[in-house]
Amino acid sequence: MDSFLGKFFPSVIDGRKSAKVNAYCKYDNQWLTAFTSSLWIAGTLSSLVASRVTRRVGRQAIMLIGGVLFLSGSIINAAAVNITMLIIGRLLLGFGVGFTLQSAPLYLSETAPARWRGAFTSAYNAFVVIGVLSATVTNYFTNRIPEWGWRVSLGLAAVPGAVIVLGALFVSDTPISLVMRGQHDRARAALQRIRGHGADVDAEFKDIIRAVDMARQNDDGAFRRLFSKKYRHCLAIGAAIPVFYEFTGMVVIAVFSPVLFRTVGFSSQKAILGSVINSMTNLASTLLSSVVMDRTGRRFLFVVGGLGMMLCELTSLHDCNRNHNYRKVAISWIMADHLGKHGGVTMPRSYATGVLVLICMCTFSFGLSWAPLRWVVPSEIYPVEVRSAGQAMSISITLCISFVELQVFLKLLCAMKFSLFLFYAAWLLAMTVFVVLLLPETKGVPLEAMQSVWARHWYWRRFAEDAKQEVLHVNDDL
């Protein structure tokens, strides 16, 4: 919003109006990127703290703490009068995000029935997408308010913060978390309530107690053990998924898609409307993923999504080769988001519309696969004794890379121009090959029996067998 930039980042307004500033460099402002990226570094730190705290106070309490922090940050941002207040509010938002990212996917994973766990856990991402869509719609309307519309936009973040706080007060903790803290009666009652009053929960409750008892044999040093050979297979997948997610390049769409709509000739208001359309596409694909995930499996969606995003790039490259005037403008479909003119020639409406379609197609592929599955897979692959630590590590990797990427992206874009995005295309190929070769299928497998998945995999079974032998030796010693 011009009112927001004019108050806190006037140099961006001046640079955007200057004809001497390269189109790639008009948003290159370190304070602006610090405002954006500070959320992610705060989330990285708080997710690591949340891992240790959640084992002692439970998933429910962590969600409550995260909601309070998020609520506080939104209020400070709405009342900001200088950049310091903006960044303090943003840091509090980041701490809240880190706590809720740590607890909410685990909560869903540990309470969902095994055959529908993918749908339940991916629902987290569906609500994230709904949040993005809601924020974009909010910006569309508040952008019409001169001078202080940005305060309304930032202040309305208090609404989801309040929902998190109130919601956390009305749900019970997970049975696994309660058993880990020695509250067996409450754990059984919570499991019965979750599964239904007429359901037989005896076998499942025994499996939970058995898994927790096994975890208590190695109760201390979860992070240290996570890096041991026994958990190397879990660590490899748990680290690879967030790394690959960040290098899909979709952060570029999130930041620059409104600018692409400006290149077609839309006004600022219609450019925001274009972002609403793109967010709706993301929501539709995410909801579809939730429906089909537990039928098709995780691997299938990962591969389809990766190939879909690659196909969008190849199609755009083919179109660029047919149109020599715009070859350098759009080496891949992503580059076109921030250049509507090249060498004084305006991009034709038909070509730009085609790129818009490719963006929606790529967003659909992303929402069908990597967007929801980045929450599902890390939340279900770890044994209970290192689950909180593993989830915290996966989240911390995601947030840390996001921080670095957002902090340096505009600077790299200014220096490297469109060649930067060729990097993302190579990662898409690498992550698809990784999934085909090394990701085991976890569809429909109970969390307590996840070890069998690793034992059947052609490569990871060697580590699973070592882990099994170690458990047998421990039992013999006892």
From TrEMBL:
Subcellular location: Membrane
Record-linked CDD domains: MFS_STP
InterPro entries to which the protein is assigned, alphabetical: MFS_dom (IPR020846), MFS_STP/MST-like_plant (IPR044778), MFS_sugar_transport-like (IPR005828), MFS_trans_sf (IPR036259), STP/PLT_plant (IPR045262), Sugar/inositol_transpt (IPR003663), Sugar_transporter_CS (IPR005829)
Main location: membrane
Gene Ontology CC terms: membrane
Domain called Major facilitator superfamily (MFS) profile: residue spans: 1-443
Transmembrane domains' residue ranges: 31-50, 62-81, 87-108, 120-142, 148-171, 234-259, 271-292, 351-373, 421-440
Protein name per its UniProtKB record: Major facilitator superfamily (MFS) profile domain-containing protein
UniProt keyword annotation of Transmembrane helix present: yes
Highest rank taxon of the organism: Eukaryota
GO molecular function, one term: symporter activity
Keywords: Membrane, Sugar transport, Symport, Transmembrane, Transmembrane helix, Transport
Family: Belongs to the major facilitator superfamily. Sugar transporter (TC 2.A.1.1) family.
Membrane topology: Multi-pass membrane protein
